[in-house]
Amino acid sequence: MAVVVIFAYLGTMAWSVRLSFSSSKLLPKNDFVGLTQYFTLFDTPRWLTSLGNLVIIAFFFLLICFALGCLLAIFIDQNVRGESLFRTVFLYPYAMSFVVAGLVWQWVLNPDLGIQHTMHGLGFTGFVLDWVVNPKMVLYAVIVATVWHGSGLVMALILAGLRGVDTEIWRATRIDGIPTWRVYLSIVLPMLRPMIITSLVLLSISIVKMYDVVVAMTNGGPGTASEVPAKFIMDNLFERANIGLATAASTVMLVTVLLVMAPVIYSQYFRKSGRAS
After folding, report:
1. How large a percentage of the chain has pLDDT more than 70?
2. How big is the CA angle at 213 (ends 239 and 124), to the nearest 5 degrees?
3. How much is the pLDDT for 1?
4. Which of 10, 131, 142, 239 could cysteine-pair with 137, CB 3.0–4.6 Å?
């Protein structure tokens, strides 16, 4: 099993990195051109645009998705009626693929089919909701779709953590007259640190590999207004027959993920091991 993992993951990863230093086009080549592909990559406006778009999506997606997921978990944790129904409704979007989520919101926000068309049919001809075709708003349309898809996951993880909080803590804080918001902020959230880290890691992974929802909603358009790195990589790998440039872009994303994950891995494993010893 270990051999399969090493070959399937580490081996293919190393091979991709190796190809990024070659002049591979339609087929892989075993030559070496140094950092040529990386210089070409960062001289490509489309790649720089995709990176900028990903930063904007990542910021709002993580912020809104985590905040909304926490609020939903806190809401359900109040022993509301129909709890099972609320859990199902909030978590259901995450059970869908990103393609389905993208198609749903592409229809909802399409000015010729969705909400805008419906409002015009009702007589509100001045109503405008053309986000998927508006270059200035299309990124926010993608953010809405991804938040709708991912907030249920955060809700489920945080809710599982909230159900593990000792009821004696709540009783003690009520006796002391501590405001509920302060209890969540100062006591409960620090106790949920493993769930918070897990949810942020899962959300971050979905951001890096974001491809399906963008293709389904906008196909990277209008123009390159919603272009993301994963789409840039796939287009160069399969449509533009530029394996060297595609693997250089994927290597940049790999390094980015490793840099983001390194502090988490260190704090979760190596730091704990150091204390234990």
Report:
1. 94
2. 120
3. 66
4. 131
